[in-house]
Amino acid sequence: MNHFELKGGELWCEDTKLSRIAETVGTPVYIYSSATLERHFNVLRDALVGAGVVEPLIAFAVKANPNVAVLRTLARLGAGADTVSEGEIRRALAAGVPADRIVFSGVGKTAEELAFALEAGVAEVNVESEPELEILDRIGREKGVRAAVAIRVNPDVAAGGHAKIATGKADNKFGVSFAEAERLYARAMNMAGVRAIGVACHIGSQITDLRPMEEAFFKMRGLVQRLRAAGLPVERLDLGGGLGVPYFNQPDPPAPDEYAAMVARVTSGLDVSLAFEPGRMIAANAGVLIAKVLHIHERPEGRRFLVLDAAMNDLIRPAMYDAYHHIRPVEPRAGEVGPYDVVGPICETGDTFTRDRDLPPLEPGDLVAFMSAGAYGAAMSSEYNSRLLVPEVLVRGEQFAVVRPRPTYDDMLSRERMPVWFEDPQ
Ligand SMILES: *Cc1c(COP(=O)(O)O)cnc(C)c1O
């Protein structure tokens, strides 16, 4: 459920008209609903706690939506943060996420980033390889601390909505095998700069079937038991993120209650503290991208193009993952639906949001909303074609705030420098 609804013939976000925001801030613009972010977080937490999970650490995957106001909204509810770079750790801290709820994941952490994470006092570094463990150990010893480590395992199950977002097969770059995990865990116990506290997995994104998750979690349970049988203590089991959301053209994702019941069943009696890293399921349906119709271009041979002022640089998921976003007019006109190819202004054929989509009648100047754009939307935006970075707005009831303003062209140009050899000779 989300808080983008038609009221009196037009789309609102909570108690704010989307058209009012577009008038004030211009388009394209991302708009997020505080109430929806909060609802999704609470629904997941309540489901887990209701199923018997004691004090779960729910670490929002910052990469899904790194805006500090979004992070603050979740931090106030007790969310932690799952981070994959120093930049994300800094964002989480700036948003008020306590360091002891920050998880540092990722296959390619640099020594500088690891040192920063230890200084910040993050809760857990999810180590993805032996060389990384060795570097972290060295940094820990230099700083005189033992870094809390979870070994990220690749459980070798297939899951996820698209090959580019499946992470849990043995041939993906993420994590180590079960056998490696046992060896590394034992090795970590004998290192002075790290302290193995647990194991972690994350098998993919936009997962709409609980079975691969259950299979992976069951394997993780076995790992915890084998480690303990070998005399190694295990406090933490991090089950990652990956729960899918309804994008309208895909199978319905499992309800949070079903997910929580499965987790409780698979981990029952294990006596570990559980961590979760949801991104998409919290943020996707809490955000929309609003664009304006620039032109309607009808080819004599039949195709009809809806040319928008938003482009693939603002929302790359359709071009990158063949992703489907529901498109709704902000102020729908009466009339028959008909097919449009919905495109942006960028000089690439890939700048096509969708083809042959049936939409109600539209006119130049009308606003449309790309639904479910709150995760991996603005987060993946760029200035390709020297288009200004898309702004972001956060709504709370009747209030809205620009939480990332649209830069000016001067801002854009001022980041660049001419090399000395272009200076005029005197
Ligand atoms: C991307 C990612 C997540 C979040 O995935 P969602 O599908 O958005 O829930 C969680 N953990 C790790 C390690 C990730 O890389």
Could you please describe the fold and organization of this structure?
The chain is of the alpha/beta class and 426 residues long. The chain has helices at residues 18-25, 34-50, 68-75, 86-94, 111-120, 130-143, 178-189, 210-229, 256-266, 280-283, 317-321, 409-414, and strands at residues 4-7, 10-13, 16-17, 29-33, 57-61, 80-83, 102-104, 124-127, 147-152, 194-200, 236-238, 273-276, 287-298, 304-308, 327-329, 338-343, 352-359, 367-370, 392-396, 399-404. The chain has two domains: 4-31 and 284-414, Lyase, Ornithine Decarboxylase, Chain A, domain 1; 34-281, Alanine racemase (TIM Barrel, Alpha-Beta Barrel). The chain contains twelve helices and 20 strands. Helix 2 packs parallel to helix 9 (256-266). The protein is globular. Bound molecules: pyridoxal-5'-phosphate. The site of pyridoxal-5'-phosphate (PLP) has 17 residues, from helix 10.
